[in-house]
From TrEMBL:
Listed name of the protein: Xylan 1,4-beta-xylosidase
Domain of life per record: Bacteria
Enzyme nomenclature, EC number: 3.2.1.37
Pfam families: Glyco_hydro_39
Ranges for region Disordered: 1-30
InterPro entries per record: GH, GH39_cat, Glyco_hydro_39, Glycosyl_Hydrolase_39
PANTHER family the record matches: ALPHA-L-IDURONIDASE, BETA-XYLOSIDASE-LIKE PROTEIN-RELATED
This protein's record includes keyword Hydrolase: yes
UniProt KW keywords: Glycosidase, Hydrolase
Organism encoding this protein: Actinopolymorpha pittospori
Family: Belongs to the glycosyl hydrolase 39 family.
């Protein structure tokens, strides 16, 4: 183990000219007419399902009844196969989860300093994930209490009802005092998982060291982190030779840390199967302590442009290392705003996490990531939503989550339902009023303007799916006029098609709107709950219809409010 103990990090880098959050512009122009063209014969290769991953801090909520139901919900509409990434697996604790904290409580030492392990909590968490048909993105962190180094005593905190000890306050971020004992923990964890879930399953997992070591999650130096990476991946591979290992899972300010890490791994030929980093679209001034129904001090929004700029900058930095150009980029926190456990009562700008704005933002972002993949050397394989659910919150608290109180599904979950209905092959789709990722070359830090854009796919049976949306990176923008969209699908195979039209907007697939119409009850009756949950799933905009293709051509007209997303599934009949 390195004897260097300074907590200084390499310089953090602000990427691009972006503000912490995008201001609202009430005078931004609207799009009144759009033409979308889809060519069913223009295949663009397999549709990379970059969205099939989510994660969260509170590992102990994985195996609650609500957590298990949510994991199964994802499996039910997607067929399973998501990568799920919980924090805090090696942290010591009671297994009682609270927002932004959890504990797997695996590592212990006896009176003579000999390690022993308890996988009781980990088994419950991983059993719930694997049992629902998903795979674990194993975050190997953080330092157990019995492995704290002497310098951890330097971190002092003021005792309070919400901070038990300095351990929960952050000493878990110090490097382990004994890298050999850490290696033993990693081997024991890997071996236990191999024996419990089998070789085929654990080979589908991703094994990643730590989280965001460029900030206070890591209280050591970059050199110590790099050394710990060597120790960690060797320990994993000693047990699971084909395990997919990687890192360094830095924040968007950690570009220099990432480069230092890649300098280290490339010069030593260290095992590296994927490279991970994070991006966030905004950071609001939080906890304004204003009256609950007041407006925010300033109307602010997430910027998808900023997120895409981050992704491109990181992927281009990775591409400078020729041996790493073919490795997948795992953006295992890819979110519109931070932190996950803040909501509308902390700052009203978090309201978008309740509304139809967020699912439309999310489908737009996933499509633009695919556009970046088409133009860049390094490819994003997964873009993880750091979202799950929160115990004890009020109805529509506004946290970054898929469920609100009472297990009610928020509109965000319907974005993933829509994406799951896309086919296996991407086909060409263009819009005459779409924002193009090439505009990142000339960005001045402005967020994405209003657009109509589309993502289209084809299935083996000839079914064509077209996901089209209207969106602007401004949750406060509204429009009295819907945008007319002329959709043309060319070169389809077959003459007669059954058309199903799914919609997310203020009036469809939206439990939040229904809750508000009922008076925003915080103690809803059974009848009210039934009415809210009846509108929580993905809804059809209109009854299914039959259309005839003329010379392989289909023409459809739809109109979109702001914001909205429509998914049209065109299935050949006969």
């Amino acid at each position: 183990m390195s004897t260097e103990t300074s907590t200084a990090h390499v310089g953090r880098v602000s990427l691009g000219p972006f503000p912490p959050a995008a201001p609202s512009d009430p005078d931004a122009p609207h799009v009144s007419l759009a033409r979308v063209d889809v060519d069913a014969s223009a295949g663009q290769g397999p549709l990379t399902r970059v969205w099939e991953s989510f994660g969260y801090d509170e590992i102990n909520w994985t195996y609650t009844p609500t957590g298990k139901r949510l994991l199964r919900t994802f499996a039910d509409f997607s067929g399973g196969g998501y990568h799920v990434r919980p924090h805090y697996v090696f942290c010591s604790g009671s297994g009682f989860g609270i927002p932004h904290w959890g504990s797997g409580n695996v590592y212990h030492e006896d009176a003579d300093g000999h390690p022993y392990y308890d996988f009781t909590i980990v088994d419950q968490a991983y059993d719930a994930i694997v049992g629902a048909g998903h795979h674990v993105l194993v975050e190997l962190g953080f330092t157990p209490r019995d492995l704290l180094p002497p310098e951890a005593a330097e971190l002092t905190v003021t005792p309070s009802p919400t901070v038990y000890t300095s351990y929960e306050a952050g000493t878990w971020g110090y490097p382990p005092r004994d890298y050999d004992k850490w290696a033993g923990l990693i081997e024991a964890h890997a071996r236990h998982c191999l024996e419990r879930y089998g070789e085929a399953e654990v080979n589908a997992w991703l094994w990643e060291l730590w989280n965001e070591p460029d900030i206070s999650y890591w209280r050591g130096t970059p050199a110590q982190f790099n050394e710990l990476y060597t120790v960690t991946v060797r320990a994993v591979r000693n047990v699971i030779p084909n395990a997919k290992v990687g890192g360094p899972t830095v924040t968007s300010g950690g570009l220099n840390f990432l480069k230092g890490f890649l300098d280290y791994t490339s010069s030593r030929n260290e095992p590296l199967d994927f490279i991970s980093y994070h991006t966030k679209g905004s950071r609001f001034p939080t906890r304004e302590y204003r009256p609950l129904d007041s407006l925010p001090t300033e109307r602010l929004n997430p910027s998808s442009t900023k997120m895409l700029y981050d992704l491109r900058a990181f992927n281009r930095a990775i591409a400078e290392y020729e041996q790493y150009r073919d490795l997948p980029a795992i953006v295992d926190e890819c979110d519109a705003a931070v932190p996950a456990h803040f909501g509308r009562y902390d700052n009203r700008n978090y309201e978008f996490q309740n509304t139809e704005y967020y699912p439309v933002f999310q489908v737009k972002l996933m499509k633009k990531i695919l556009d970046l993949n088409a133009s860049e050397l390094v490819q994003v394989k997964r873009a993880t939503s750091w979202s799950f659910y929160f115990e004890g919150e009020r109805y529509f608290e506004g946290t970054r989550s898929f469920l609100t109180a009472g297990g009610i599904e928020k509109p965000l979950l319907n974005a993933y339902r829509m994406l799951s209905l896309l086919g296996t092959e991407r086909i060409r789709a263009t819009s005459d009023v779409a924002w193009d990722v090439a505009e990142l070359d000339e960005t001045d830090g402005s967020s994405m303007p209003e657009e109509i854009d589309a993502l289209a796919s084809r299935a083996d049976n000839g079914t064509v799916a077209v996901l089209v949306w209207r969106h602007i990176d401004d949750q406060y923008q509204t429009s009295e006029q819907e945008t007319a969209v002329s959709l043309t699908v060319r070169n389809v195979a077959g003459g007669t098609f059954r058309v199903r039209h799914f919609r997310i907007d203020a009036d469809h697939s939206n439990s939040h709107t229904r809750w508000k119409l009922l008076g925003s009850p915080q103690d809803p009756t059974g009848e009210q709950l039934a009415e809210i949950t009846a509108r929580q799933g993905l809804e059809e905009f209109e009854p299914a219809s039959t259309v005839e293709a003329e010379s392989g051509l289909l023409s459809l007209d739809i109109s979109l409010p702001l914001p909205a997303a429509s998914l049209l599934i065109l299935e050949p009949i006969g």
